[in-house]
Amino acid sequence: MNHLIAPSLLAANFADLKTDLDMLNRSEADWLHLDIMDGMFVPNISFGLPVLQSLKGKVNKPFDVHLMIVQPDRYIADFKAAGADWLNVHYEACPHLHRTLQTIRQQGMKAGVTLNPHTPVSLLEEIITEADLVLLMSVNPGFGGQSFIENTYHKVEQLKELILKKNSQALIQVDGGVDNHTAPGLLKAGADVLVAGSYVFRSTDPIETIAQLKQLKC
What we know:
alpha/beta; 8 helices
């Protein structure tokens, strides 16, 4: 399949959010990536359920929700009700990951699992067939605009090997430092979905920037 682009709302201009949402609706973006942070799992607080609910009907892209929170199981049904299409939890936050992924699927959402930069891909071997998506963080989660961690290319290759070995259908998503320099290598390594925040929303022409990311060949 062709790779997907998921601009991250965290980098949008919240003082003029309508303009950015209108831009996304007119763009070639495939998903809207939403980072939910609680100030405990990561050292930052972003936005939560009320923001997701307010976006319903205003964005014509699937909601790709990334939970950077403790005890995400408590809120799975709430995020479904708020409009999440994909719900992504951190491996590091889920002591019963298999059950968490099953619950997400039972709620009618696609289930994703995220790995922090220091977490090895091999830890997913027993649950990779239960995941619809694996998100590899290519920066330390919590803040936008960080430098890309070069080892991510190798990690994507490792994950691709595991997916093929286990005959999993999981997509590979990468978030952090994605731009025109890092994206080609990520696609070549096997990435399916690229999350781009600052690179899109701080561009002088975000629609063209998204189009260029869509047109990249691995």
